[in-house]
Amino acid sequence: MKKKIVFIQSYERFPDFRIYREVEIFKGFDVDIHVIVWQRTDDGKYIDDNTDVDLHIIKILSEHGMSGLQHLKYQPIFYKKVYALLKEIKPDLIVAHNFDTMVPSALYKLVKTVPVIYVSREPFNKVFRIKFKSVVGEWVGWLLDAILAHIASVVFAVTPKMMRMYQHMVVKAQFIPNAPLEIFYKEALEKTKRNEIVLGFIGNIRESLSIKMVWKAIQILNKKDKIRFKLLLCGVVLSGMEEVINEMQREDCDSLQLIAPVTPDKVAVLY
């Protein structure tokens, strides 16, 4: 059965450049893609069709630059409608694009324990200060954002300034400009309890690295433990290790992977 991914955004048009780019990433995955979007005004542009996406349009006629009171009036309606859609879709992964969309996503995560990626694009402590014209609003926004960030499975901060803000919140955020990246989607869709651990060496493979001792330990662990260990060797084989590596591959080729040679420009990718 295909896994379901839901993107939620409170912008007026779909696909905007962010969502469109992320949907493109998933075209190579065997998944069902859903997008929930808030169309705020009746004179907004028509939503673009995309045959690869199930589009859910929430129409709540309100202005783009809402005041604090309008925010309190319309946002709960949006949250309620989003939560109802999430219950209907039953997603395996939620990607919430900003504070507004993170609120119903966090509630759903608390109930259903579904992973949620929080893509934080605005410093909502400042937004709250502007909306409610008060320093108190700034502290309320900061506190609410900190709570949501702690509930999220992964937090992406798209600017260095926001990354520093989350560090003050004691949130382990990832700084990724124009986030998110494909690798995080893959990890979010995998099982949380992994049954495989990979041990890797990057550099010249020689006797002094005690490769043989590590290999013996892996052989013992793989016979006793449910978790399978694999050895990944990346580099140039030196010091007559060729025969040793060949013997290891004959013993258990599934538990050993050799990538050689590795040039300096590939090291960062391997890490």
Q: How would you describe this structure to a colleague?
A:
The model has no long low-confidence stretch (mean pLDDT 76). By secondary structure, the protein is of the alpha/beta class. Strand 4, helix 3 and strand 5 form a beta-alpha-beta unit. It contains 10 helices and 10 strands. Strands 3-2-1-4-5-6-7 form a 7-stranded parallel beta sheet, sandwiched between helices.
Question: How is this fold's topology laid out?
Answer:
Elements (H helix, E strand, L loop, with lengths): L2 E7 L7 H10 L4 E9 L13 E7 L8 H22 L3 E5 L1 H14 L3 E5 L3 H9 L2 H17 L2 E4 L2 H9 L4 E3 L6 H8 L6 E7 L8 H14 L3 E7 L7 H10 L4 E4 L4 H7 L1
Parallel strand pairs: 1-2, 1-4, 2-3, 4-5, 5-6, 6-7, 8-9, 9-10
Helix pairs in contact: 2-3, 4-5
Helix and strand string, N-terminal first? EHEEHEHEHHEHEHEHEHEH
| Average pLDDT figure | 76
Tell me the fraction of residues in β-strands, as a range: 15-25%
Please count the beta strands (DSSP E, at least 2 residues each).
10
Short structural summary:
With 271 residues, this protein is α/β, with parallel strands linked by helices. The chain has helices spanning 17-26, 68-89, 99-112, 124-132, 135-151, 160-168, 182-189, 211-224, 242-251, 264-270; strands at 3-9, 31-39, 53-59, 93-97, 116-120, 154-157, 173-175, 196-202, 228-234, 256-259. Helix 4 packs antiparallel against helix 5 (135-151).
Distinctive features:
elongated; seven-stranded parallel beta sheet; about 270 residues; about 45% helix; three-stranded parallel beta sheet
